[in-house]
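This entry is retained here.
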Amino acid sequence: MKKVRHVLGISGGKDSAALAIYMKTNYPELNIEYYTTDTGKELEETYELIDNLEVFLGKKIIRLTASLDEENHGYDSFDYLLNMKFQFLPSTQARWCTQSLKLAPFEKFVGDDPVVSYVGIRGDENREGYISKKLNIQSIFPFRKNIWSEDVINKVFLNKNIPLLLTKCENTKEYSELLAQPVSQRYTLKKKVEVLMDFDLLKTNAIIFDFVKSSSYPLSNTTEFSLVNNTDVLIKEDIFRILRESGVGVPRYYEKVSFEVNGKRGEYSRSRSGCYFCFFQQKIEWVWLYEQHPDLFMKALNYEKKGYAWNDNETLTELTMPKRIEQIKEDYLKKQNNRSEQGKISSKLIDILSEDDENEIGCAACFI
């Protein structure tokens, strides 16, 4: 068997930070390599979080970059790629930043080794995380009831595998009957997996792991995997609790800042990790950057001088006109009030990533 590497990426956001703490606390037997992909355009709060995590973890978090210092002509990673290769700003239609600054350095870091990558998607999120196209990288999601990636589930529960899977269910008639139910248009794969996991999560995990051991997935190189016995499901409130109780703390950009517009009071903050000029930001987050980090906002604005803008429908110069800022704040307060009236806000710590937005949710490689 080949030696399996266990890796966990720190984005600078709350979920990946909490996952690192969770894995260190609950699975100390795993020799996890912690890494972060540094674009050179992160917020100061991100670097502060990484420093705090290193103290808690008792080991260095490996810094990955898109190019070596001696190769980048004096640019940081983002500027090197912008000026020497792409010549245009990344956008929701052309996410070269995610691919070149996050995913490519990660895949270079792991090489051809069999790797288990731990991803911090929570149990209250309805989305899949990044699944590498490289067969030597397998994603695991410890915060969810279903810790397995979608590609694994799709292979294990093919109807043609039912006879094989049933051999793993001796003396459990009711579970076997559920397992024998074929997937169809009316009884979807997602529904079948939910039913099996709700009935007996540990047995379902054991069956999946047994199947994986006979496959080409990285975990086929292991005889046991402790997360098979994991029954935790962690949601947003758990994440903030873990960060606070560990002493690592919640990233400072989540701290709410009060503002007033036309006699109305509200609070705003940044809601995500990633570059300070991330094009997935809401307009209110751009206003937050303009008012709380004017130096960084001006740097972001200067990138637009080459004819490209971070937003599809307006430039940052247009966004910072007094009337426009007033409108953005008014719209933000209106959205908050509407959600509050509909009972959608259950915490003072609002995770904007889980709310409706003008843009689609960004790539998990940047924001978890």
User: Anything to note?
Assistant: Confidence is low (pLDDT under 50) at residues 344-361. The CA atoms of residues 76 and 319 lie 27 Å apart. The beta strands are 5-9, 32-37, 62-64, 115-118, 137-140, 257-261, 264-268.
